[in-house]
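Appendix B. One record, verbatim.
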Amino acid sequence: MKKVEAIIRHFKLEEVKNALTEQGIHGMTVTEVRGFGRQKGHTEMYRGTEYAVDFVPKVKIEVVVADNMAQRVVDTIIRSAQTGQIGDGKVFVSDLSEVIRIRTGETGEDAL
């Protein structure tokens, strides 16, 4: 099993969610996060004063899938989240050794 984590722009969340749903992905976790990479924040004006915003707001999507679905999920996220501009985000793929559904005790892919 694989855990796919993607850090994307806020306004791309609905598009990514819909694209993953079309691929048969039925569960995901979404978290609002803040960070920076090459984008290195930005400046904003508030009441005539300029402020530096060091951490840019983003959305983190986490999806756990069977090994054979991981590349399709990654491709779907990239295709639907990409704008071509700096700050589009990152995708991370990790191996999972075990998944357990708390309610039933099912393990492995049965727990997904």
